[in-house]
Amino acid sequence: MLVTWQVAADGQLRGADERAARAVVGHGPAPLTEFLADLGNTQVALPVLGCAIVWALLRGERRGPLHAALAMAAVPLLVVPLKDWIARPGPLTGATGYYPSGHAATAAVAYGAAALLTARCVRDAGGARWARGVWRWVRTWMMPVAAALLTAGTGIGLVLRGYHWPLDVLGSWFLSGLLLLPSYRVGRAGSKKRQRPK
Fold this sequence. Notes:
By secondary structure, the chain is mostly helical.
């Protein structure tokens, strides 16, 4: 809310945001920053989420994949009206509609939901008890960490290429967190059911 208000009202954060972006636009190797920015394209992010949904469905889950699909469907339903309402110009153009970033929201929701779906399907490996615990911890956190890195990389690429202001990306991440909350809660409820003794 604070970020959206600052951008819409031309607040102090917006000025600092624009100064910071102007200082970093064009930095970094262009092929790498372009690759990172492209991670937020629907052609890249949606197949990742689609694979995670299919995998979860094959494992017998129903609510998690449904919440993940609904969160992804909500991205354009929320981002497009906000872009029209705020009408923020882009860093390298006078055209409007840059806040919030659709690419950043797509990346955060697609990779985040995929991580939530896959992280909850961890089973104990055989072997020593301490090794099972370490392996379970690695497998449990591997996908969320990967999702966070992909999402952060997307945001960095978008800013360094001059496609978005930093607050455009940050606002999208906050919105995405709200969209992913039901998926997270479904995963927590499902894991508690699986852990209950019989």
